[in-house]
Write a structure and sequence with these properties.
The chain is an alpha+beta fold and 139 residues long. Helices cover 15% and strands 35% of the residues.
Length: 139
């Protein structure tokens, strides 16, 4: 190694971990209000957070997702081992992106969180809006 390369190796500053953008910043995540969706084709979320309007948050690893069901009249039902999560709302079959519904994104592990809407949000949303009205977690 030449002297200049050796000197450069030890003098050129590298970005610190504090300078790196956390996951969820503008580059890797689209915040759609009701949920976040990872942008990259190969991006996969490790866990799925369910954020309730009362401030409670439940997170389950996608590796435990054993069954996912979408029934337009009842919503989305997810089984994580022995626990069941039910997501009810309006227009859940409406695409959140071109050719991708919320259910499709969950099945492809592209959703890191789902946000339950509060009362004023539900009331003020227009008829075509996708709204998660309730998230129920049962053992």
């Amino acid at each position: 190694m030449t002297d200049s390369r050796l000197l450069q190796k030890y003098t050129v500053s590298k970005p610190s971990p504090a300078d790196e953008k956390p996951v969820g910043e503008a580059e890797g995540l689209d915040d759609l209000g009701i949920c976040g969706v990872l942008r990259g084709v190969r991006e996969r979320a490790i866990m799925l957070e369910f954020r309730q309007k009362d401030g409670n948050v439940h997170a389950f690893p996608y590796g435990w997702l054993t069954r996912a069901t979408f029934d337009p009249s009842e919503g989305i039902t997810l089984r994580f081992g022995s626990e069941t999560v039910k997501i009810a709302g309006q227009n859940l079959a409406t695409p959140i992106r071109p050719n991708m519904t919320l259910f499709d994104a969950i099945v492809r592990h592209r959703v890191p969180y789902i946000q339950e809407a509060d009362g004023p949000t539900i009331i003020s949303s227009h008829r075509q809006a996708i709204v998660v009205e309730s998230i129920t977690v049962k053992p």
